[in-house]
Design brief:
95 residues; alpha+beta; 4 strands; single chain; two-stranded antiparallel ribbon
């Protein structure tokens, strides 16, 4: 079980860790807790928790298609990295 294992790592090291992580956990059950959607996306099965309960369950594409809380938070986080044209949403901050 990993809880935000790369929180203090730079982007390159985080990428390296997760590349190796995928190799080591292939065909194994692994629990990964994260608020970083770049990390969450690689899971086969995602449980979206809110208010202490499982609110949504499925794969990344499936949860996005549902348009629920997972999709809202994913798009909010993605907006920090993408241009307005890429997300279809306006940024809430100047920049």
């Amino acid at each position: 079980m990993l809880d935000e294992p790369t929180a203090a790592l730079d982007v390159q090291t985080e990428y390296d860790v997760y590349t190796r992580f995928r190799e080591l956990t292939r065909d194994r059950l692994t629990v990964l807790i994260s608020h970083r959607f770049s990390t969450v996306r690689m899971a086969d099965r995602i449980l979206y928790l809110a208010d202490g309960r499982v609110r949504e369950e499925g794969g990344h594409a499936e949860l996005l298609a549902r348009g629920g809380g997972y999709a809202r938070l994913y798009r909010l986080q993605a907006a920090q990295y993408l241009d307005r044209e890429e997300t279809g949403e306006a940024r809430a901050w100047a920049g």
